[in-house]
Design goal:
597 residues, mainly alpha, UTP6_N
Amino acid sequence: MAEIIQERIEDRIPELEQLERVGLFSRAEIKAIIKKASDLEYKIQRRALFKEDFINYIQYEINLLELIQRRRTRIKYSFKKDEIEHSIVHRIQGVFRRASAKWKDDVQLWLSYVVFCKKWATKAQLSKVFSAMLAIHSNKPALWIMAAKWEMEDRLSSESARQLFLRALRFHPECPKLYQEYFRMELMHAEKLRKEKQEFEKADMDMKEIDHSEEILNGELARIIYKNSISKIKGAEFHVSLLSIAQLFDFAKDLQKEIYDDLQAMHTDDPLTWDYVARRELEIQSQPGDEQPLTKQAKAVEVGRREERCCAVYEEAVKTLPTEGMWKCYINFCLERFSKKTSSAFLRGKRLERTMISFRKAHELKLLSESQYKQWIELLLPRDFFTEALEVSEAGIELFKDSVTMWQMKLQVLIASKRPDIAMFVEEAFVYLKPQVCLPLWISWAEWSEGAQSHEDTEAIFKKAILAITGTSSVTLKDKYLDWAYRIGGNKKARTVFKSLQENRPFSVDFFRKMIQFEKEQESCKMANLREYYERALREFGSVDSDLWMDYIKEELNHPLGRPENCGQIYWRAMKMLQGESAELFVAKHAMHQAGH
């Protein structure tokens, strides 16, 4: 092994001599490079090989290449690249080849190899890397697409890209993404040929050598891919994706029309088809050819007309296809248009009216989902339509009795409309809901009670909630209870609540940090109380939270009644309790603190 390493170091001597001779590196730097290279060579030549050693070797060589480049720029020297950079690039490629041969399944390693070749190697070399990678990872469509895009965009070889896509489709005959990208590539190729033809015609040059048929120039190859793909992959979503790609190319109007007509003919029973057809109306002008600038009012009228046309299509759709999915598309469209900002009060009113009507119709047909009932209530509440909001929330609960979201929405309506029967309603909800999902209801009830009832009533709600909610869900509740206690009774009340909960696990770190902060905000901040809170927190989180230990040490050092002599003991306790990375982090933070940072 020593002979191999010596030989590889000797292979470097010509490039290192050139680096020193032309003034890019000093003799001392060359010696340092040789020493580092020897260490790296030893690690990748030994019997037990590790991927990290190869990565470190490659990274060191790449850093060296970049340093050479920066120094060339600085001293304005651009010669001897064959003897210097090309030698290093060739060596890195050799290491990449060894690594990728040993760890064939590591896609990230292959991608690193590709990135390196894109920056430093020739196109022919990168083409070989792609071939080697795809021979092993032929089961990954994304890699085929990457290779084909590179052939098309960097090598400008549409034929090579086409061959890669065809090979990929043999492995993945039903992969939508492959068909989409192949379709896009053929349209890009046709567009490129059309531009070439136009340039030749402008220059009045001989067209014989680039005489492509009109079919090719009009995207016939893309049309063939489209026809093949829809025979393999069914569904309106894929069909619409191809139409969206075709619409990026102005010359493909006939192809766009063919795809659009097929979409309507083949997928009439899919809500996506109707949704796409309806939304197209937004792009069509009411009076084609009239390109005069419009006033704000005229623009609002024009937008209103387009939206009316969209809704006419949706109305036809929900009659033809009366399903929950179709109504969802219609309602989502109405909500999107309503959320668009406009200065026209007429347009804003029309959008709101249209959205309300669509919700009501879908509700009458019992075709609204739980999330849509929530959207409907959220639309009604800010506009103070309390009576209708209450009716909608009751209808939602009737359909989705085990949904905490629907019960919470009704609670919001009752609170907003200042109804007195809140407690009765919440107790009713608890009959139908599992205790562990009721946390949002308990919190909303307590927040309402804080503003509407006595402190005793609110505390009673918190105490009931603590008994009902257990496990991790209770952590948020305890934090809320502590915050409320401090707001209404200051540190004294917060401390009482803390003591009542201190054995009621689980807790969050914030639960203890809140108490520490409350104590520090007092005029007479007691160190004994701070110690108690830190000790309680460390019992729960001392094995994972290095910040708690550091804050405890700082408190002993900085508090007027602190005991700096305790810091050593706290440090050793921390070292015993903390594990792994947490211990390393603590040591680093403690060292920084001692150094004054």
